Task: inverse folding
């Protein structure tokens, strides 16, 4: 079993290393093309494509088997990384990230579905902890390693170099993993029925468009487009229309819905989804801004700024391990879900109060509780979701849980970015006046390197405005963590098998 965990976790390690690398270097990559204001797209387009395809992963794995879908996910992810590495424009890099996101949709979800196939419920949290170690190790190494490569040979090698590595991960799965098939009646009741005909393409399309339009509203609103813009209003109306259409298709038309809506009324499905979503908004929001904070306040290199994420990812590992041990021994998970939101809120509170632009080593550890709370949340909500749920629904429900986390990640990046950019613009506009001030403000928002070149009082003003903006963005993460805590109180404790 331990050997199996190594085989299925290699891709998890690489996917998370990639994510950490992009969180650290998105400002540098976009600045190279003179488009720092579009830095968040490098993160959000990956998440958008992943969210759009994620609902299908569970159903496809029910139909074609876990192994086949996992291998296809590796292929898309690797191809996207290589394309990003050779692209000659920011648009090209963004296209590569979109292709990688298609693969990312299955890489994490299928591994967790495999765990539910292989182990009893009380063991699930422990195995999730193993996966969490692989993910956290990837996040720990991805930022510093990618930052080092960016500072030396260039960021392109961090993307292109992942191609051969993901190929090795694919070979490990191809030759070393036995396929598992679902036991759901729908998977075996009609052997003559075409596999393709069992895919709810219409429902999948409507759900994907709903997700993308909602996330575009979050990403564009207040940042690239004013909130009162007709484009935002149009996207909002479209998202509602497509959501209603999706619900009607799933209830009245689809013979095998991509996501059966009645699951949201069962067990802890809705509360687990909401708790993890809010928790992820908080943690990803912090992770996105921390490297920027140290690059601006300390003029840190990309590698040094990336290394500042280590306390959070270590906390994530510790939280996952503690949850695995606790659930295995006691069979209880609700208290862990509640504590996850409470502990995460501590991290945001400390950042608001204590990160004032001159952060020392001990104060840099304030992000540890955020990672710790997220580790508790990921493992405990996964267990809570499966508690009392019929095995035939595990794959679809697991895809939904990862979708909630993915949406939380996109929302986290988008919300903190909107708050940060608008507050920096506002405060700089008040403090910098006179000839050339507009040009300085524009450059300060677009290029991290430009801020590092500033001297004297001008640099102090710009850094101070960024620190103020970051405090407001941590207000967003505090609210999200608090909502995760409140939702956790509604989770029901159920007996584990």
Result:
């Amino acid at each position: 079993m331990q050997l199996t965990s190594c085989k299925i976790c290699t891709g998890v390690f690489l996917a998370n290393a990639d994510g950490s690398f992009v969180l650290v270097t998105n400002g540098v990559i976009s600045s190279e093309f003179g488009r720092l204001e579009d830095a968040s797209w490098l993160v959000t387009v990956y998440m958008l494509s992943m969210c759009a395809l994620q609902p299908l992963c569970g159903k496809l794995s029910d139909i074609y088997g876990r192994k086949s879908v996992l291998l296809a996910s590796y292929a898309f992810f690797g191809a996207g990384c290589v394309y990003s590495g050779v692209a000659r424009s920011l648009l090209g890099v963004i296209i590569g990230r979109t292709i990688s996101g298609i693969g990312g949709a299955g890489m994490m979800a299928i591994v967790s579905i495999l765990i539910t196939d292989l182990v009893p419920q009380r063991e699930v949290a422990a195995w999730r902890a193993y996966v969490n170690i692989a993910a956290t190790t990837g996040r720990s190494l991805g930022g510093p390693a990618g930052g080092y490569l960016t500072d030396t040979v260039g960021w392109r090698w961090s993307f292109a170099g992942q191609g051969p590595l993901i190929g090795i991960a694919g070979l490990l799965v191809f030759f070393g993993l036995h396929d598992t098939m679902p036991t759901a009646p729908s998977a075996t009741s009609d052997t003559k029925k075409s596999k393709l005909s069992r895919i709810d393409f219409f429902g999948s399309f409507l759900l994907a468009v709903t997700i993308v339009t909602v996330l575009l509203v979050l990403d564009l609103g207040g940042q690239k487009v004013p909130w009162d813009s007709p484009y935002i209003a149009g996207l909002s109306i479209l998202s509602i229309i497509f959501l209603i259409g999706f619900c009607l298709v799933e209830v009245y038309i689809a013979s095998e819905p991509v996501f059966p809506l009645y699951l949201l009324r069962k067990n802890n499905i809705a509360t687990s989804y909401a708790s993890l979503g809010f928790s992820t908004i908080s943690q990803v929001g912090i992770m996105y801004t921390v490297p920027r904070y140290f690059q601006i306040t300390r003029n840190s290199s990309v590698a040094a700024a990336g290394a500042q994420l280590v306390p959070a990812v270590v906390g994530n590992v510790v939280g996952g391990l503690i949850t695995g041990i606790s659930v295995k021994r006691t069979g209880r998970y609700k208290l862990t879900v509640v504590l996850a939101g409470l502990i995460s809120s501590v991290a945001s509170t400390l950042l608001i109060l204590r990160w004032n632009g001159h952060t020392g080593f001990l104060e840099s550890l304030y992000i540890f509780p955020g990672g710790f709370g997220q580790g508790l949340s990921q493992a405990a909500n996964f267990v809570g979701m499966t508690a009392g749920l019929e095995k035939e629904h595990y794959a679809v429900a697991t895809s939904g849980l990862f979708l909630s986390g993915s949406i939380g990640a996109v929302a986290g990046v988008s919300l903190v970015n909107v708050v940060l950019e608008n507050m920096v613009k506002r405060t700089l506009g008040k403090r910098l006046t006179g000839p050339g001030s507009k040009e300085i403000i524009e450059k300060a928002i677009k290029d991290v390197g430009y801020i590092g070149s500033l001297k004297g009082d001008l640099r102090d003003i710009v850094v101070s405005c960024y620190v103020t903006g970051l405090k407001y963005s941590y207000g967003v993460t505090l609210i999200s963590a608090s909502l995760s805590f409140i939702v956790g109180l509604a989770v029901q404790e159920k007996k584990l098998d």
User: Anything to note?
Assistant: The chain has two domains: 2-200+255-488, 201-254. Residues 394-431 form the longest helix (38 residues). Residues 183-190 have pLDDT under 50 and may be disordered. The CA atoms of residues 217 and 232 lie 6 Å apart.
